[in-house]
Amino acid sequence: MQIINKNIKILIVGLGLIGGSYAKALRKKGFYVTAITNDQKSIDYALNEKIIDEGYDYVNEKAVSDAELVVFALYPNVFVEWVKQHGHLFSKGTIITDVTGVKQCIVYDIQNSLPQGVEFIAAHPMAGKEVYGVENSDDKIFEGANYIVVPTEKNTPEAIETCKDLGKVMGFNRISVLSPEEHDKMIGFVSQLTHVIAVGLMTCSDNEHLVDYTGDSFRDLTRIARINENMWSELFMLNKDALLKQFDTFIEECNTLRTMIKEEDTERLKEKMRLSTKRRSLFDKK
Amino acid sequence: MQIINKNIKILIVGLGLIGGSYAKALRKKGFYVTAITNDQKSIDYALNEKIIDEGYDYVNEKAVSDAELVVFALYPNVFVEWVKQHGHLFSKGTIITDVTGVKQCIVYDIQNSLPQGVEFIAAHPMAGKEVYGVENSDDKIFEGANYIVVPTEKNTPEAIETCKDLGKVMGFNRISVLSPEEHDKMIGFVSQLTHVIAVGLMTCSDNEHLVDYTGDSFRDLTRIARINENMWSELFMLNKDALLKQFDTFIEECNTLRTMIKEEDTERLKEKMRLSTKRRSLFDKK
Q1: Where are the domains of chain A?
Q2: Which candidate among A94, A155, B149, B261 keeps its CA 20 to 30 Å from the CA of B60?
Q3: Measured between alpha carbons, how far is A145 from A173 in angstroms, rounded to an integer?
Q4: Predicted ipTM?
């Protein structure tokens, strides 16, 4: 069942890597895509490359009130501010979604800031790249990727379906539903903790010749160590408690493994490796 | 300068993923490649796929004494045992090299076990895959990869050059030289520590639905968590001291980052991220 009809007017706020990739995917499917971002260069690029149909480097009131489906692809704090300042411009019936990497700290706040009849249904596309800006936007990053819809008790079944449908339209592989609390716990582990580990691997040793000796293992574990420090420090702070909890679990496991190595307890070490192999093998299935 | 001539007789001992990939690369370049491995099925497969010219599932004395360049691609302890048992079969002038992932604990031992005039020059190809066996062998894994020659004071300049040349012939991108001690320290970090971390990430949390939510970050950091428990526990034990030292450095850095997050010290956290980004960017150059 296709809920989103092709004539729906889509507005994307924030035309960076993810906003641009959403625009690209949606325009290719025949949707009319308008964008608002704070940078005329990004608008010019996106118009020129036919990533969007229409764009503004300011809050164009008509574009906002005309929009029927809005995707916010901004930093979390900027997103909350934007809605508080301009949320009254949305028309009744508009559905708003987002791509933000943290949920509890923004979802309730935004749902409470919006006018009656304008519904915010949160989502998190588990896709990205270690580069930034609309110039790097690429809708192929959604292929085979996971998409998580994050409703609260305030959301209607219709908005949840529309949000799932948006994920399908853009080509995501697997669409799941989590509560904001479950989402933040999970994301503290699979996304934020992995970024901390990658950074730690790059910063704990200052061997500048490493690049001459390294193999793919180290390259893989540090790909995400090229990190946007403003975005990620904001994400870490907004999900601090969940991240610290996951970090502790990981450090504890490191200490357990360290003891096994130190004590040459190869039997228990092999058991851990067999468990790891078994669990990881699930990730190769599509 | 090409030191290795095309008529040299190459023997590969151990026809697994790496031995098979060496054979494939060398045979493609026109070398006559013989293999000895403990499994007739692997020999049959390799003959059938034209990965080798000749093969034995036992220690064929003529194949050993005819060989002029020998590559050992066995587990470390099996390698040492093999040389102690059969090393007397090598002819004077033979150059022996290997692909073993640890060096101090085997190099001196093997150099002392070999007869006069048979020279062992250690090497470590920094290439691999998380699959095993000659059936998965693939000489493309050497493209763009690093190759490390690991001489001791006993090695002649000629053998070192031959070993470097072998790396060039097989298509490695960068060829470096490290002492066994430097090698083991470095490998404890870029290879062994990364495998421990990947295993720890998979074993510290038992959320079986993770695969539904995960993004590329977690997939990248755990690719090597599918691990051959026999080989890697042996490698860890043989390089225990260096690995534990690197592990401690990493855990200490984790604790530093944890404190920065806990205390919301975003300025120092951003500094770490900028350093990490700067260092990692070097790895993208070819």
Answers
A1: 9-178, 183-284
A2: B149
A3: 5
A4: 0.88
Query: Quick one: what percent of chain A has pLDDT higher than 70?
Result: 98
Distance of alpha carbon B182 from the chain centroid: 15
**Distance, CA of A225 to CA of A240 (rounded, Å):** 19
Question: Chain B residues with CB inside 8 Å of A283's CB?
Answer: 211, 214, 219, 222
Q: Which two tokens stand for residue B247?
A: 């592990």
Query: For residue A13, what is the enclosing H or E element?
Result: strand A9-13
Mutate to test the interface with B, among A192, A206, A214 (most CBs of B within 10 A): A214
Task: Catalogue the E-assigned strands of A73-220.
Answer: 95-98, 119-120, 122-126, 146-150, 174-177
Q: Is B8 on the interface with A (CB under 8 A)?
A: no
SS3 B207: coil
Q: Do the strands B122-126 and B146-150 form a parallel or antiparallel pair, or are they unpaired?
A: antiparallel
Confidence grade of residue B6 (pLDDT, cut at 50, 70, 90):
confident
CATH code assigned to A9-178: 3.40.50.720
| DSSP class per residue in A219-259 | HHHHGGGS--HHHHHHHHHHTHHHHHHHHHHHHHHHHHHHH
Interface test with A, best of B276, B278, B284, B285 (most A CBs within 10 A): B276
Given an 8 Å threshold on Cβ–Cβ distance, is A207 in contact with B189? yes
pLDDT band at A3 (very low <50, low <70, confident <90, very high): low
Residue A103: closest CA among A129, A79, A137, A133: A79
The rounded percent of chain B whose pLDDT value lies above 90 is 89
* Among B100, B264, B255, B282, CA closest to B191: B100
Strands in B73-218 per DSSP E? 95-98, 119-120, 122-126, 146-150, 174-177
What CATH homologous superfamily does A183-284 map to? 6-phosphogluconate dehydrogenase C-terminal like domain (1.10.3660.10)
Q: Which residues pair with A70 in a beta bridge?
A: A11, A96
Quick check: A5 contacting B, CB < 8 Å?
A: no
Please determine whether the domains at B9-178 and B183-284 fall in the same fold group of CATH: no
